[in-house]
């Protein structure tokens, strides 16, 4: 299998398709349905902020997908490397890579400063696309917060006036608002959790991968690979990590 350069290349993941579908549904749901059911004084600023966050979320989603997080050494010739630097060799890519790169079996390439593989953007998250990924999760959380508050406001107004239940088509619309309001609440908690987790990771200055490795080491069910760098050689102690590294070590 050839290595994919970005998340928009073949083949798309199910979660990636779901995220595109979610953007379409939430965008239409908010602008064409929820806004009409909320109070006019409430709308203008709310609509501007929601659509700004919506565009920011969609754009950062696409940028995170499109950036190639691969190790730069995969794309340059060997004689361009610095002579005094230490490299690892990936047996799958069959190339020398930077010390802190890791091979992703899904992307089929080594990722520079690997964080995790995200199926929502169908791409690995590494140091090259971490910033747009961070913008994506924060803007999505705030966007869902507005969606939740607006849809619950709309529900409150519908139930308090009760005029909407007079017509059958309005009953269907009310059910739709309740259904997507609850969906946006679940999305809010999901993105809120992811954002909080990554804020903690940024604060601690560690990657998701390092966090998982440390957690596994603490549980004693797995042993984390320990990289020992010496002046003359690199040795790596790897036991059962549950992850295929595909890297042979040596300089
Ligand atoms: Zn590799
Ligand atoms: Zn990957």
TrEMBL record:
EC no.? Answer: 2.3.1.225
> Does the entry feature the keyword Phosphoprotein, yes or no?
no
**Record's keyword terms, sorted:** Acyltransferase, Membrane, Transferase, Transmembrane, Transmembrane helix
An annotated GO cellular component: endoplasmic reticulum
Domain remark in the UniProt entry:
The DHHC domain is required for palmitoyltransferase activity.
Major enzyme class: transferase
What sequence ranges are listed for the domain Palmitoyltransferase DHHC? Answer: 89-213
Question: Where on the tree of life does the source sit, at the highest rank?
Answer: Eukaryota
Statement: the UniProt record of this protein carries the keyword Acyltransferase: yes
Query: A single Gene Ontology molecular function, please?
Result: protein-cysteine S-palmitoyltransferase activity
Q: How does it sit in the membrane?
A: Multi-pass membrane protein
Q: Which Pfam families match?
A: DHHC (PF01529)
Please give the family membership noted in the entry: Belongs to the DHHC palmitoyltransferase family.
Transmembrane feature ranges: 12-32, 44-67, 133-160, 172-194
- Full protein name: Palmitoyltransferase
One GO biological-process annotation of the entry reads: protein targeting to membrane
Which subcellular locations apply to this protein? Membrane
Q: Which reactions fall under this protein's catalytic activity?
A: L-cysteinyl-[protein] + hexadecanoyl-CoA = S-hexadecanoyl-L-cysteinyl-[protein] + CoA
The record, for PANTHER family, names:
PALMITOYLTRANSFERASE, ZINC FINGER DHHC DOMAIN CONTAINING PROTEIN
Chief location bin? membrane
């Amino acid at each position: 299998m050839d290595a994919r350069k970005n998340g928009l290349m073949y083949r798309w993941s199910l979660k990636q398709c779901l995220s595109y579908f979610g953007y379409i549904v939430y965008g239409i749901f908010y602008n064409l349905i929820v806004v009409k059911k909320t109070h006019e004084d409430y709308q203008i600023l709310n609509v501007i902020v929601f659509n700004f966050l919506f565009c920011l979320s969609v754009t950062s989603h696409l940028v995170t997908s499109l950036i190639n997080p691969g190790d730069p050494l995969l794309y340059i010739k060997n004689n361009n490397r610095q002579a005094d630097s230490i490299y690892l060799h990936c047996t799958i890519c069959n190339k020398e890579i930077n010390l802190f790169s890791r091979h992703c079996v899904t992307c089929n390439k080594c990722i520079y400063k690997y964080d995790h593989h995200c199926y929502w953007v169908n791409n690995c998250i590494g140091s090259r696309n971490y910033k747009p990924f961070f913008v994506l999760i924060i803007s999505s959380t705030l966007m869902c917060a507005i969606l939740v508050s607006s849809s619950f406001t709309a529900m409150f107004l519908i139930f308090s006036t009760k005029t909407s239940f007079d017509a059958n088509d309005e009953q269907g619309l009310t059910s739709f608002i309740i259904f997507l309001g609850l969906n946006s609440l679940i999305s809010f908690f999901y993105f809120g959790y992811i954002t909080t987790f990554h804020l903690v990771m940024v604060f601690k200055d560690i990657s998701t991968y390092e966090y998982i490795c440390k957690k596994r080491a603490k549980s004693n069910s797995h042993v984390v690979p320990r990289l020992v760098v010496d002046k003359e050689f690199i040795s790596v102690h790897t036991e059962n990590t549950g992850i295929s590294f595909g890297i042979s070590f040596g300089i």
